[in-house]
Amino acid sequence: MPETQTSSERRSSRVFTRIPVQARGKNLQGQKFRVKSLTIVINAHGGLLYLDQELELGADIVLINPATEEEQECRIVYLGDTSEKGVRVGVEFLSPSPHFWGVEFAQQDWSSHSPSGPSN
Predict the structure, then answer these.
(1) Spatial contact of 35 and 52, defined as CB atoms under 8 Å apart
(2) Is the pLDDT of residue 109 over 50?
(3) Using alpha carbons only, what angle is made at residue 37 by residues 118 and 84, rounded to the nearest 5 degrees?
(4) d(CA 78, CA 10)
């Protein structure tokens, strides 16, 4: 049976940050799209962002970091709420890419006991 991960067993630290990205792929209607977006949360294995496309769980898309022009193939692993910004979409990199975001991640998650959290 597959194991489930709890938030305390995450593979890498999450960082709440807005990084401009472009996403491209095919939507539910089979139409190709290329849209600009901002991340909500990132980690070394993927991220969460808003996309204004109808997508399905398990679909493959490509994220492009416009600052570095690096492309990363991803799989949609979460479809969340819809708002005026689009659908909350969780993506997982198909191959490890800890430097795609241009952010250094802590080796361990930040302590949940810290009263002020990480300082920026």
Answers:
(1) yes
(2) no
(3) 95
(4) 15
- Note the pLDDT of residue 103: 84
Q: What is the pLDDT of residues 59-93, one digit of tens each?
A: 999 999 999 999 999 999 999 999 999 999 999 99
CB distance 41 to 47 below 8 Å: yes
In the structure encoding, which two tokens stand for residue 94, read together? 């198909």
Helix count (H) and strand count (E) of the chain?
0, 7
C-alpha torsion sign, points 31, 36, 37, 43? positive
CB 54 within 8 A of CB 82: no
CATH architecture of 13-93: Beta Barrel (2.40)
- Rounded to two decimals, the pTM is 0.78
| Residue recorded with tokens 């901002």 | 38
